[in-house]
Design goal:
Blueprint: H1 4-27, H2 41-55, H3 59-72, H4 79-92, H5 96-106, H6 113-128, H7 132-142, H8 149-165
Helix pairs in contact: 2-3, 3-4, 4-5, 4-6, 5-6, 6-7, 7-8
Amino acid sequence: MAAAEPLRARGRRRRFAALWAGIVCLGLTAPTAWGQEAVPQAGIRLYDNGEAAYREGDFTLAAERFEEFLQSYPASLRAPNAHYRLGQCYYKLKDLDRAQKQFEIGTTFEGTKIQRYSHYYLGQIERGLSHFKEAAEAFTKAYDPAGDSGFAQHVMTLIAESHFEQGRFFE
């Protein structure tokens, strides 16, 4: 049994070294418009406080925390989520102009769920304003047949309803 312990320890060291190498390699990838800024513990706490306030239903406080976070760390890895959550806060507070602005920023994060979900909320805003053509366009951008099947079916229903509201029955 004693001989197996050093092998296990070596295995842990190798896994740790591989994990560390992976982290270092990720840091050496091509820069993007976001995700390059390091966030200190105080910033992480600020973001986490926004998430906690959101989950507790205090959307005003959550919006304040996400605004503070984005003002201090606009290019961090958490910036896309912060913009999306801020949009959700404003949406729930019925401040649709500010929500729309945040979701429009969310659509710029290419290839992410944030991009699709931001299009979804933009569609919901347009649908609420009876702008069915714009809603159908936004929902179409949110649709991903390879993604979550429940979400995809929901989005397809919203696309169909938006076309129906326009009197376009076979598109």
